[in-house]
Amino acid sequence: MKPTIARIWRGRTPREKADEYEAYNYEAGIKPLIEKALGVQTFREDRDTESEFVTISYWENIEAMSTFAGTDPTKIHHLERDSEFLIELPKEVQILRLLTSHGATG
Fold it and tell me: Which InterPro entries match (predicted)?
């Protein structure tokens, strides 16, 4: 199966909570996502006072994504402890059609 959809989530934590959130997010959010998506990438950018996390998951189509994310795949399903870590709770995710992919990213 080839992905045709990318689902992008972004969240920011205070810099001092970033390491703890990274570990929590992986266990509670990324591991279950890995089992369902065709691929998952996670990113982290540390700034002076905050860290931004970005998760991109790849899906065969909107229907496959909806089986994981619910009938509205743009709706956020916050992790149980997100409010302890995140500066603000994200209100939506970005969904993009994947047009082309070149090179190795694995």
Answer: Dimeric_a/b-barrel
